[in-house]
Design brief:
The chain has three domains: 2-33; 53-99; 120-276, Ribonuclease H-like superfamily/Ribonuclease H (Nucleotidyltransferase, domain 5, 2-Layer Sandwich). It contains 13 helices and seven strands. It has helices at 2-10, 15-22, 26-33, 53-63, 73-82, 90-99, 169-183, 200-209, 225-235, 247-263, 275-279, 283-300, 326-332, and strands at 120-122, 128-137, 144-152, 158-164, 188-191, 212-215, 319-321. The strands form two sheets. The chain has a five-stranded mixed sheet with strand order 4-3-2-5-6, sandwiched between helices. Strands 1-7 form a two-stranded antiparallel sheet. Helix 1 packs across helix 2 and helix 7 (169-183) packs parallel to helix 8 (200-209).
C-alpha cells in the first residue's frame, strides 16, 4: 500500500527523499517493486572467449594422459609451453579438472593415526604415578632451573622431586629408581611426551621393572591433570618467588614447600585430607574422628544445622586419568 504513495511523492522529489518522508526503507521499496523470482537462478551466459567443447575435450585429454596424469597443472602448462604449445591458461585447466572431479592433491600424503587417549585408574596408593618437569626462573634472564616432580595420583603424595640445572633423562631415571626403592614399584607411570619422559633410559627402567608406560597425547595438557594441578598449586602459592637466586635457593624452597604439601596441605580432591594421610592409610581414622566431632556439635546445637546432619567429606574411591563415559564402561563390561 505504501509503494504507490512513495511513487506519487517521488514525482515531486527523488525516491530517496520520498522514502525518508514516509519512513520507508529505500531497499524495501526497491525489493517490493522487483520481487525476487523463485526457482533456480538463471544460467550464466557463456563468455565469448570460452573454449569450445572440442577444445575442452582436447585439454582434458592432455591433462589426463599417461604423460601428465601425475603432474601438477603448473608443471603440465610449463612443459607444453616449452614445447611451443599453448592450450589455455592454468586457471582454465583447473576449472576443467574441477568440473570432472579430477582436481585435488594427487601425491601421497603423510597420515598419522590418532594417538590413543590414556585411561588410567587407581583405587589406592602406589598404583599409578604421574610425573612432569617444570621450569623455575633463575637469577638472570635466560637462566632456568628444572623441577622434576613425581606424585601418586590417588593420594596426591609427592613421592620424589629434584631441582637440576638441566633436563636430562639420566636424572629422571635415577629419580624414579630411588622413588621406587622407597615407595615400592607402581603398576603404571604416566607422563607427557617430553624428551626425558620418552627417553630410552626411562623406558628401559620401566620395562625392566614391569611398569606400564603411559603418555599424554600430543598437545593435550588435560591428559596429565594431576601433575599440572600440583604445579599450579606450587606456582600460585603466595610464598612462591618471582625468581630464585641460586640452585641452592630453589632446592631449599622446594624442600619446604613439598614438606608442607605432603603433610599439612588439605587437598580438596581427597576429602580435605593431607596427601600423607591418604598415602599412609590414616585418612579413614581421621575422617571418623572428624565425624565424631561433627556429631557432637550437632547434638549440642541441632538447630544450627537445619534438617541435615553434618557429614565429614568422603574419601575418594578412585582416581582417573580420562575416566571413560558410562556408556563406554557399559560397552566394555
Amino acid at each position: 500500500m505504501i509503494n504507490p504513495a512513495v511513487d506519487d511523492l517521488a514525482q515531486q522529489v527523488n525516491v530517496k527523499r520520498a522514502c525518508e518522508l514516509l519512513g520507508r526503507p529505500r531497499g524495501s521499496h526497491y525489493r517490493a517493486k522487483r520481487p525476487r523470482m523463485h526457482g533456480p537462478a538463471p544460467k550464466r551466459p557463456t563468455p565469448p572467449n570460452a573454449l569450445a567443447a572440442d577444445e575442452q575435450t582436447q585439454v582434458l585429454g592432455v591433462l589426463t594422459s599417461e604423460r601428465f596424469c601425475d603432474k601438477s597443472v603448473a608443471q603440465t602448462w610449463a612443459t607444453l609451453l616449452d614445447e611451443g604449445t599453448y592450450l589455455c591458461s592454468m586457471s582454465t585447466m583447473h576449472r576443467l579438472l574441477r568440473a570432472c572431479d579430477a582436481a585435488g592433491e594427487r601425491r601421497r600424503q603423510a597420515t598419522h593415526p590418532a594417538k590413543k587417549k590414556p585411561e588410567l585408574l587407581a583405587t589406592g596408593p602406589g598404583q599409578v604415578w604421574s610425573w612432569d618437569i617444570t621450569k623455575l626462573r633463575g637469577p638472570c634472564r635466560g637462566i632456568w632451573f628444572q623441577l622434576y616432580v613425581v606424585l601418586d595420583i590417588f593420594s596426591r603424595y609427592v613421592v620424589a622431586w629434584t631441582v637440576q640445572t638441566v633436563e636430562d633423562s639420566e636424572i629422571a631415571k635415577t629419580m624414579l629408581e630411588e622413588a621406587m626403592g622407597v615407595h615400592g614399584i607402581p603398576e603404571a607411570v604416566h607422563a607427557d611426551r617430553g624428551t626425558s619422559m620418552t627417553s630410552k633410559p626411562v623406558a628401559q627402567l620401566l620395562l625392566d621393572l614391569g611398569v606400564d608406560r603411559s603418555h599424554s597425547r600430543p598437545r593435550v595438557s588435560n591428559d596429565n591433570p594431576f601433575s599440572e594441578a600440583a604445579f599450579k598449586t606450587l606456582k600460585y602459592a603466595p610464598v612462591f618467588p618471582e625468581a630464585f637466586g641460586s640452585l641452592t635457593d630453589a632446592r631449599a624452597f622446594c624442600e619446604a614447600f613439598f614438606g608442607y604439601y605432603n603433610h599439612e596441605h588439605r587437598h580438596s580432591g581427597i576429602g580435605l585430607h593431607t596427601p600423607a594421610s591418604v598415602h599412609h592409610g590414616t585418612a579413614s581414622e581421621i575422617r571418623a574422628y572428624r565425624q565424631a566431632t561433627l556429631d557432637a556439635a550437632h547434638a549440642a546445637h541441632p538447630e544450627r544445622f537445619g534438617n541435615r546432619r553434618p557429614q565429614a567429606p568422603a574419601l575418594p574411591k578412585a582416581a582417573w586419568i580420562n575416566q571413560p563415559s558410562p556408556e563406554a564402561l557399559i560397552q566394555t563390561a
